[in-house]
Structures are given as structure tokens and as C-alpha cells.
Amino acid sequence: MVSIFTKIIDGEIPSHRVYEDDSTFAFLDINPRSPGHTLVVPKREVDYLFDLPPADYDALWRAAAAVADGIKQATGCSRVLVVVVGFEVPHAHVHLIPAEGLEDFPFPPPIPQTPEQLAATATAIAARLEIAYDPAVALIVVDVQNDFADPSGSLAVPGGAEIIPLINTEIERAGAAGATIVYTQDWHPPSTPHFAKDGGVWPVHCVEDTWGSELHPHLEVVPDAVFTRKGSGGEDGYSGFTMRNPSEEGEETSTGLEQVLRERGIERVVIAGIATDYCVKETSLDAVRLGFATIVLGAAIRAVDLQPGDGERSVAAMRAAGIELR
Left if phi > 0, otherwise alpha if psi is -120 to 50, otherwise beta: which for 23? Predict the structure, then answer.
């Protein structure tokens, strides 16, 4: 059954429209909690907000941010409250409500909770957010090497070192569950078209058998892991799965990682490391293209941001490809 919101979007029911783009429609609530109360609705008719495809979900919140700014300017309110209820109409939507303080919104009354009850609830929620590792899962740790993760590295990525404790926790959990752990490394010769001095765009980095190419000393390295080195023949080695031959435009060769994972019966991969906008993105896109269910740990990646916003655009591209960001 077509929802009332779809009929509004299609013009079958009149509305006070305030915004529209390819994915999203916003209009005033006819029973407002305050003047300017607006509903922001995805054009795709989905009942539950978190069931929206990644591209529509991202578009909805970008639209909500733009509309909220317009509401604030138009009404002069102190804040715009963001409310997602979802029970009123079976079509996902966001309420944007101008407000001057919490007294303008009726929160449910507080309930008594002991510290033990709070701890139990927190544990239950956290457990459901953790990755479920098992022998059919591979944790791929991408390029956590000195030249990228150490502040003195030749291509140091901002915040590269701070994700290492998070990655170590995942390595411990994955290992305990019998998952495969993979470490990828850039492994370049002293001269390669990859480097600016030889016609590329990057400073010299991760030259084979140098300090810069070594895995960061704070990274937990397990002895029975799979180690994949890329770029050793001068290739552009962004992905842990494939490399591009610099001498033949567009030709790709395998690093051998896919075969190793197939032989181990791997069905799902979890990816963390450096850098979001290059090696993490390309490894993730290759993984999902090859048929692996793919999760990227959003808190355990960092971007180069050669151009401002490269990291955010890369995350959007991964989501659009069906990769789950946790």
C-alpha cells in the first residue's frame, strides 16, 4: 500500500514543501509542535529508517542538516530538535522541531535503574555491536606501517597511530575465535612510477626492507597470520587483492590474497587500517566485488585527505558499494 508520504511526494496530496532533491522531500507538519516543524522523508518508501540503502540514508541526513539550518534561520530558534519516532506512518521520516529548550519536547519520564542494571544493558548492547568472528571470517589489517602510522614517517597519516589499540583489540578477538588474520604492506622498490621522483604523486615510502616498510611496533602481530605485500614490482599497490601494472595501462594482477582466503573457506572480511581514501577503500571495494561480505571498522581507519573530504567521500563510496561501516 502506498504511504501518505509517497502521495505527498507525488503531489497527490498537497503539502507545504520546503525542500526537494533526487532522494529526499521535506514539508511542514500540519500538526506542528512548534512553528517550522518539518518532516524530512526519503523518496524511497521504506518503513524502518535503518533499512534504507546506504546512499538514501546518507542523502536523508544531508538533507536534514540543510533543512535544519534553514529552519533555524527562518524561525530564530535556539536549536532544531531531531526526532525519529517511526510508529506514526510506515514510511521512514525525520522530525525537525524548532525549540528553545528541553521543556519544548516531552521526553518520557525517567525510570529508576541500579548501576548493575545499567551495566547489564550496556554490555548487552555492546555485545550486539561487536563483530562476530569465526573461522569463516578474515580480519584484514591494512598497511599499519611506520611510514604511514608513525608521525615521523615519510607519508604519515594524521591519527594513524591512535587506531592501533583498537586494531589490537580486534586482532585479539579474531584470533580467539579462530578467524584468519591478514596483514597487508606496501613493499616498494627504491624507484617506482608510484613515487613523485619517478613521475608519480607520492613521496618515497615503504621501500622494501627499510624501517618505513615495517609494521608499526605497537601493532600486535600474530605469527600464524597471512602476510600480503603489494607493489614490489613497481605496481600501484593500493588494494590488498589486486595491483595495477605501471607499464601496461589498466592491467591488474592478483596479490594472491583472494586464493588464500578461498582455500581457508573465508566468506566474510573485516577491514581496518590505513588509509581510508586509498588502500582501505580499494581493498574493501575489491573484497565486495569478489563476493566477500565486507565490514569496515569506521573507528579504526584514517584518511590521507590529499584533497579535503577525500576520506568522507571514500566512506560514502564504500557504503554505496554495499560495504557495512561499523
Answer: alpha
Are 91 and 45 contacting, i.e. CB atoms less than 8 angstroms apart?
Answer: yes
3-state secondary structure of 155: coil
Pseudo-torsion of CA 196, 200, 201, 205, nearest 10°? -60
Residue 133 has what pLDDT?
95
Q: Which one-letter DSSP state was computed for residue 236?
A: B
What's the rounded Cα separation, in Å, for the pair 45 and 32? 23
Centre a 10 Å sphere on the Cβ of residue 310 and count the other Cβ atoms it contains: 17
Task: Convert the pLDDT of each residue in 242-293 to its tens digit.
Answer: 987 765 566 788 899 999 999 999 999 999 999 999 999 999 999 999 999 9
Angle between helices 281-289 and 310-320 (to 10 degrees): 10
Distance of CA 70 to the CA centre of its chain: 28
Query: Which residues are catalytically annotated?
Result: 143, 230, 279
Hey, is 181 helix, strand or coil? Answer: strand
- List, for residues 144-171, the tens digit of each pLDDT value: 999 999 999 999 999 999 999 999 999 9
Contact 213, 206 (CB under 8 A): yes
Q: What is the pLDDT of residue 203?
A: 85
Element holding 166 (H helix, E strand)? helix 164-176
Nearest to 135 by CA among 175, 178, 182: 178
What's the grid cell of residue 286? Answer: 575489491
